[in-house]
Fold this protein.
Amino acid sequence: MTPAVPLALATSAALAGCTTAAPPVTSRLRLPYRDAGLSDRQAAAHALDRLAFGPTPGAVDRVLAMGLETWIEQQIAGDLPDPDLDARIEALPDYRQSLTWLAQHYRRSGGVSREAIAAGYIPPDAEKGSDAYREGTQRYMRERGIQNFRELIPVLLDSKIYPAVYAKNQLREVLADFWFNHFNVTARGGNIQSALVYDRDAIRPNVLAPFRQILGTVARHPGMLHYLDNERSKAAPGAPTPLGPAGGGGGINENYGRELLELHTLGVDGGYTQADVEAVARAFTGWTVWPYTNYRRSQRWMRDLSAMPGALQAQEFTFRPDWHDAGEKIILGQRFPAGRGMEDGEDVLDLVAAHPSTSRHLARKLAVKFVADEPSDTIVEDLAEAFQTSGGDTREVLRALVQHPAFWEAATGADGQPSKVKTPFELVISAVRATGGEVQRTRTLARALEEMGEPIYHREPPTGFPDHAAAWINPGLLLNRMSFGLQLATGGLRGVRVRLGTLTGGREPESAAAALVAYGDVLLPGRDLGPTSDVLEEMVLAQNVAQRVQSAAEQAAPDGPGSGGESDGFDFDDDAPAEMGMSSDRGANPERAARRQRRAEQQARRAARDARDARDARRNGRGGQTRRQTNDAMPAPSDQVDAGIVVGVLLGSPAFQRQ
Amino acid sequence: MFSRRAFLKSSSLALAAAGVGGVPTFLARAAQAAPALGPHARRKTLVCVFQRGAMDGLAAIQPLDDPFLQRLRPRLASPRRGDDALIDIGQDFGMHPALSPLADLYREGQMGIVHGVGSPVVTRSHFDAQDFMETGMRDERRTRSGWLNRASGMLGHEAPVTPFRAVAITPALPVALQGDAPALAIAKLDDFGVVSPGMAGLDAAGQGLEALYAQTARDVLGDASRQGFEAVRLLEDARLNKLEPSSVEYPRSPLGRSLSQIAQLVKSDVGLEIAFAESGGWDTHAQQGSTGGAFARRVGDLAGSLAAFWEDLGTHRDDVVLMTMTEFGRTVAQNGSGGTDHGRGSCLFVLGNDVKGATVHGTIPTLDPDALEDGRDLPVTTDFRDVFAGLAGQHLGIADPRSLFPGWTGDPMSLLA
C-alpha cells in the first residue's frame, strides 16, 4: 500500500518542521539557555532535539533566523498549516473510517470463511484448507470489499511515522507519542483497527488539550474500554442499578479502575487504597462498547437500550444503566451518593484530574520525558505547580518547561553530553530526519524499531514503553542501534531513501576529514565532535575501505543474517498472544539459508565490483576532487559506500544516541 | 576475511584507542578469552522464566477435592473425568491438562512444584509486584538492583567472567538483571552484532564504532558497548566452534524461541550461569477458559517450551536448574467476565535432575472464603525469596544466600537433593 501522494513533497522545507512564512508571533517566552552556557545555535539544536524529533538539514539555521522564542511559541501553539502532510495522511486508505466500518471491512479470515459458507460461496463439502475453501473465501471478501485485517497495519504505521518525520508541528508529534504511551493500549490480539481509531480520535486531537479533556476522551474510547476490560464491568448480581437490582452473570472488573488511579492520574504512591480501586471500578460500571462486531447482539442492544431511561450511545461508546452499580461509594474520601448513573464516572474523572497527586505524577512524567531520567525535585515541583494552577493546561506546563533552567541545563547534563538517551522511536525518526530521508515504506522502520525493543502500537502492559536509558540501552540493543544507523546510511533499509549528496549541498567533501566536519555538522549540529572526529578520521584515513572490501569479498562471501533479510514484513502474528511478530527461525529453514547465501554472494560480487570501480576512479584522478551531484541522482555506489560508512558511524556514535 | 582480532592487534585504530587512555582491558581480555573456554569451564546454570501478567496458579495446579473450587469458579475449573481431565499428580492435586508435556518429567522426579508462593508485600499492581519480585528490595529505589544481578556478583567460584555469565533472551534487560554486574540482553542470537546486509566495509564501520565507544565515559552507553563488542567476539568464536541449531522442536512462540537460544548458549560453553526468559499474556481478566481457551493456550505454550528445553539440554541437564516465577496469583472466584482479577498466591515450577521432584511443596488452605486472604485470594504461604534464595544458593553455590535479599529474615528453602 504505497502512498498516493508523490514523495517529491519531502522538500527540505517540509522536513524542517518550521516555516519562515508563518505569521510572526510576539514572544512572551524568556528562555534561560545562556545561563546554562549554551550558544544560540546550541540552544536551537537542543530545542529541536527535545521539542521535535531532531533537526533536519539546515533546520537550526532556519530556527535561528526566525528566532528561537518564535519557533517554540509556534510549536506550543501547534497550529502551523501543513497541507503536504495533511494530503499525505488523507491519502491513507480508509484512515478516516469509523471503528465499526473498519471492523467490518478489515477482518480475520476465520470469521469471514464462516460467513462465506453461510452465503454459499464455499461448497458445504469443501474442507478447510482446500482450494475451493480458499477461493470461496477470497471471492466473498472481494465482492464484499473485505480485506484481511493485516492490510490495515501499514496504514497504522504510516499514520504515526509520516507525521513524526515530516510534520511542521513537531511538538504535536512528540506529545502524540508521549500521550499514547501514557494512556497505552495495544494493537496486539486483533486490535489494529481500534488502536488506529484510538490514536486518531482520542490521543492526537488532544495532545495540547487540558488534561481533563484527554482523560475523559480516553475513558470513553472503545480502545481503552476494551483494553482495560471496563467494557465487561457490570454491577454485581443483586447490586442496585438505576433500574432496579442487577441481574445475574455480572460482576465488576477492576482493571480500568486500578490503572486509572495508578497510571493515568494519581500515580502508584498517589494515596489511594484497594477500597478506592473497587469503588472507582463500581463508578465506571456500565461504561461499555457497542457490540459493533456482532450484528445480532447490536440488534438486541438497540431494542433493549431504546426502552431504557438514562442509556446513552455516542459512536461506539455506550452507557448501560442496567449494568451500572448505583450504590453509594466513597472514593478518595469523597462520598458519591446512591442512585446516580453515568455522572458517577464523570465525577471520578473530575476528582482525579484535579488531584494534587495527579499534578505531581504528570509533572514527573513530563520532566522525565523532556529533561532527564531522574529529574530534580525542583523541576518536578515547578511543573506540578504549573499543572495545578493552570488546571492541567498542557501548553502552560510546556511554557514553564522551556523557561526553566533545568530544561536547558539538560543539553550538557552528563559529562557535557545531553542528559537523555533517545528512545528507539526518537533514534529512528531523528536519523531519518537528519539524513533528509524519504520514507516510502514505513514497515521497514517499524521492523527496525521492533529490533531495538520498541514495537510501536504493540506494547502490551498498560505502563506503556519505558522512558529511561537503562530500559533501552544494553549490549544487544545498542548493537542493533548501531546496525540501524549503518543500514540507513548505506541504503540497506528498503523503502527508505537517503541522499547523502544533498546533506552537503550536493558537493562531495574534498577529503575524509572534510567529510567528517561536513556530515558531523549536519547530523549533530551544535555538538562538540572533537573526540568523535579524531577517531573517525583515523578510521577513514587508516583504512582504504574499498580495498579491504575487495579482499574480503574475494576471500569469503559475507555470512550473516541481515536485518533487512528476506522477510520484509512487520508481520504481527496475532495468534500468538505474546508474539513480537518477528519472522522467526530464519536460520532453521534450509531454503531460506540457501537464498540468503546466494544473495550474500551476489552482494559480495557487487561490493567487489564497486570497490574496483572506486579504485579505478581514483587512479583516473576523480577521487578527492569536488564534484557536483544533482539532487536526483544517487551518488555513485563507490562513493556511497565511503560516505555511507562515515554517516552510518556518526548515526551509531554515542553522541547521536543522546539528545 | 579481515579478522577483527588481527586488526585490533595491528592497526592504527588500536593505537588510537590506546592514545586516549591505554588499551582497554576488555580488548585485551577479549583477545585471550576464547582459549579459557571449553569443557573444563563448564558451569552451573540457573534459568529463570518470568510469566508476566500473573499466572492463575489455581488453574494450573488445582486442588482435587475442594468443593469451593467448583462453586467459586464454575467456568474455570477443569473436569475431573474425560479426555481433557485434570492430571492427577497425587497429594490431592490435579495438573491442568494443557500442562501434560510436563507430567512425565514430574512423575519421574525431575520437576517439583511450590504452591501458595508469592510476595509478602501486598500489592495488586503488576508493575509494583514485578518490580519487587525482580529487585527483592523495597525502599531503596535509587540504589536498587535486580536480585539475579546481585546473584551474579556472588557466584561461588573463581571461573573467569565472560559477557555471557548473565543473559536475558529478551528485547530489553529485565529489572532482575539490572545492576552493577555485567548482564546481556539479546533478542536474537542470530542477529547479534553490528550487521548490515551486504554492506561493504562493515568491519571498518564496526571497528570505528568500537573505537568511538571505547573512549566514552563509563556511562550507560560506554558500559553497554564494551560488553557488547566483547560478547560479539566470543559468540563469533563459539559459532565457529560448536554453536549449532538444535534439532528439538520447540513451540513457535517467544518463550519457545528464547529457551531454544538459552539451550544453545548452555551447550556452547560460553560461560552462561544465569539465564532469563519471559512469557506474556497471563493477565486473564476475561474469558480465561477452562480446558481450552486463553489460559490453556498460555499454559500449553509454557509446558511445551519447558519440555522441549529439557529434552534439548541432553547431557547438560545435570548442570541446569530452571524455575518459573510470576508476580502474583489471581482471585479464587471468577469475575463477571469469565476471568480472574489480581490476587495473591500462585505456584511455580522447578526443573532439575537434583530437584526434590514429584512433589508439591508448600501449602494452600481450603478455598472457603473464610480461609482466604481478604476473603478472595489464595494466601501467600511461601515467600518467593525463600525459594529464590534456596535455589540460587544450592545450585549456584552462593555461600550466603541470605544476603541476596536485604531485609529478608526467612529461611532458604531446600528444593535440591
Observations:
- Chain B has a mean pLDDT of 85.
